[in-house]
Amino acid sequence: MFSWDGADVEVVTPHSARRYRDLQRSGHATVYEIRACTEEDLGALEESMPSVGGALHAQFLRRQQAGEATYLVAWAGARPVGSGLVRWAGHLDAASRAAMPDTPAISNLTVLPAWRGRGVGGELVAAAEQRIRDRGHRQVSLAVGQDNEAAARLYARLGYVDTWLREVSRYDVPEDTGPQRRVEEHNRLLRKRLSRS
To answer: Does residue 27 form part of some domain?
Structure first.
């Protein structure tokens, strides 16, 4: 439990559903949960976690509706504080998918700055891993920017190991005031073997 904006907050996931119900009934703590995104969530997501061009959350939801992904959102009461995407077919890069066949990928993990370092990212990863495990997969992968040491440390603590595979992601980001901007990310691919629990 920690304090945020004057409220006591406890991180809870479906694994601690009884604790979640008890805290809700007591009214003594703001609780947080992770669940799949719905159409009704899009307004709150854009308000709390605005996406460049205002379309990213809707795009991830469309992928979920098509069965390609599951878009997980971490909530503190009615406010989204983090999100992450499970890509069921694996990484977007064909070479990465070929190197790790039948391996879903966690991507686009985002946590609001005020919530970083409070376990939200780790809980989002754990919720994603559980969904992947529930579908019968035995491993998961993710990409981390070569310059993102804080995220790399988190993933190492969570049991992810470097595959020594590298990928470059290139994509266009819409700008609010003009044409799209080309972004290039250099990533390390990490992998974790999942237990059967």
So the answer is: no
Question: Quick one: which of 124, 122, 123, 128 has its CA closest to 141?
Answer: 128
CATH code at position 183? 3.40.630.30
Query: Could you give the strand order of the β-sheet that contains 69-76, starting from the edge strand earlier in sequence?
Result: 2-4, 7-11, 30-36, 69-76, 79-87, 105-111, 139-145, 178-193, 161-175
Note the pTM of the prediction, 2 decimals.
0.80
Asked if residue 86 belongs to a domain, the reply is yes
Q: In angstroms, what is the C-alpha Rg of the chain?
A: 17
Positive/negative CA dihedral, 95, 99, 105, 108: negative
Q: 58-110, pLDDT tens digit by residue?
A: 999 999 999 999 999 999 888 999 999 999 999 988 999 999 999 999 999 98
Enter the tokens of residue 29: 């703590």
Range of the domain at 163: 36-193
Q: 117 and 157 in contact (C-beta within 8 Å)?
A: no
